[in-house]
Amino acid sequence: MRNLSVLISGAGIAGPSLAYWLSRYGFAVTVIERAAAPRPGGQAVDFKGSTHRTVLERMGVWDEIQAHRTGTTDVVFVDERGARLATMSGEFTGGDVEILRGDLAAILYRHTANDCEYVFGDSITGLTETADGVLVTFEHGPARTFDLVFGADGIHSRVRRLAFGPERDFVRHLGHYYCVAGASPWSDSATPRERIVSYGHNAPGLLAISGGSKAQQLYLFAAPELDYARDDADAQRRIIEERYAGLGWEVPRMLTELTEFDDVYLDSIGQVRMDRYTAGRVALVGDAAYGNTLGGFGSGLAVVGAYVIAGELALADGDHAAAFARYDEIMRRYAKIAGNANAGKFLAPTTAFGIRMRNWFLESRLFTLMTKYGDNAATDIDLRDYPALLAAR
């Protein structure tokens, strides 16, 4: 296999995971990221089950993830007076191990930086496939040609738009938005890794979650697709203030503190639906291919998908057509685990009756069974031992 050159767009979770495996198998890897550096902080992500752990152990990052894991966060739903209505356990939301997205990205970057070329502060503007490769143009850097291009650039993937078509053709708006503001309670490395409690209050179509004064805030609310700039924090604050005006409990205090937080992120809850994740010499990995916002499987799908597509490419000696076909087949089946989740509808029901039913469900045996189903689904893949297969050649 000749030393194929590959470009990966995105330095979050899927991108560096893919970079790790491709560089290990002898590909010349370039990762491009529009941010100026690896992004710190962010929400917590989790892994669950033997499949996720196996991939992370084969990457040599499992012990580091354990060392940087967060504690367990229970969410207690309360009424306007603060009386408990139901509890969503941290074991459900945090999987077997939970880690801040920024901490995970930093670990993956450290394991790939010496073997891959990273280009920060730039992004792809055009893709033109030729008989021998893909001509890529960039916002700032000169055009370059690569043998293969991978989009690991999130649910709003630019690579997907350029290679497959407009976002509206592949991303389904699930009727809700979410907003995260403030640093995670686990951002301070001195914080003991133990159980903490956050509190959530619902009104029809609205949910506000807070761990207390100056703590990280999470908002979920029902809404049709909104027109706003995702890089305008002030506009995002105004949307939250308008939606939550008049809501009781601790929401007035939260809205006052919201103006003091620099890190505010608002986005829609959406689901990517694609029949295939590859087109010619371009392939999608992670949320760009099978994202489902807050669906609970995104980080696991990202690392498994990266492992699979890199392994299939190596086994096929760089024959991308054969490898991409296998990747499509394997991941279409496995990615179904995130297909039916709708976090917005579950966490912020649009009726008072829906809120009562959600609270009842959280306290019932059905919730335990749903948690077990999710754990089983996370391992529902025939995971090939690519490193062993390639070493045996």
TrEMBL record:
Q: Name one GO molecular function term.
A: monooxygenase activity
Residue ranges occupied by any FAD-binding domain in the UniProt entry: 5-319
Which keywords fit this entry according to its UniProt record? Monooxygenase, Oxidoreductase
Q: Which SUPFAM superfamilies match?
A: FAD/NAD(P)-binding domain
Entry-linked Pfam families: FAD_binding_3
Under which name does UniProt file this protein? FAD-dependent monooxygenase
Lineage runs: Bacteria, Bacillati, Actinomycetota, Actinomycetes, Mycobacteriales
